[in-house]
Design brief:
Length: 341
Amino acid sequence: MEDVEFIDPILSIIEGLKADVTELEQKAKANAKFQAIFGQQLERYPELEEISSDVNLKMAMWEARRDMFTVTDTWKECLVMEMPLKEWDAQCTVWYKIAGRAERELGPNTLVPKLKEHATIWKNLVPACGDLKNENLLERHWEKLEGLVGFRFERDPETWSQPFTLGALMQKNIMQFKDDIQRISTEATQESVLEEMLSKVKTSWAEAEFQLANFKEQKEVYILTGVDDVQAMLDESMMTIGTILASRFVGGIRSEVEKMETALKTLQNVVDEWLAVQKNWMYLEPIFSAPDIQRQLPAEAKMFADVDKGLKNVLKKVSENPNCMRVGGIPDKLTYSARGT
């Protein structure tokens, strides 16, 4: 709190100077009106403009110095999760700009370095603590953060030993970890984007169903139809999964993404097998349905009969539960080999 008690008297002096400058500016404007009325050349007062700018800057500089102690004292008591980030960040930016301008435009003095130092601290501190408000931070992220900073972030009011305030973090020198906090907060945000992409893929398949139709109006004999839509969904979903896995932020959800990728690949293989078998079966069915062919080619007819029975059984089960992932996305479930057809 050094020299804060001297700021108000200094501001009072500057206020007086500012009032004098304002009075002189009003007189200059009045003089300019008379000169305009009598057609005289308007006189400019560059020194007055310079003094006005200097006084206003010094006023802003000392007000910023005062506020960085009085205003931020109240900030320190604020719970981190209740910090009004936009408002505080805007205020810190104002202080930082004033400090920068004072550094450029005023001569050497003892205040400007201190002003710049504190303005820089707050300009970095507020966003750093704001990263801890990231709603995408999950327990795994908090554990990673705590491992880096070496202390527990007491977020639960029912268990904390001291409130999770900005001041408490400052006491633990949180600024030395600002880069780590920002990095993990960014990871959490990017992981959330990937999780949303994955969720959309899962949602699209949750209700996706195979379309079937009766083969030649035969009761309980089905064939797959409209498979183009399923194939299009598979292509789009695999592209999305590929994008997610290519991201450097996939680490936290990789196992879940790979599980979905496996289900999609399995479904693709199953659909390919079913369609291959179905295509051959539809070609051979009218041939081996003929009694004379069955007599002429008994071995081949028996092989076809085995395929015929298996395919009909599989597609009947699909008709009873047409959900794509339930019947086709699980390895070794309801799969049927095209070999032998």
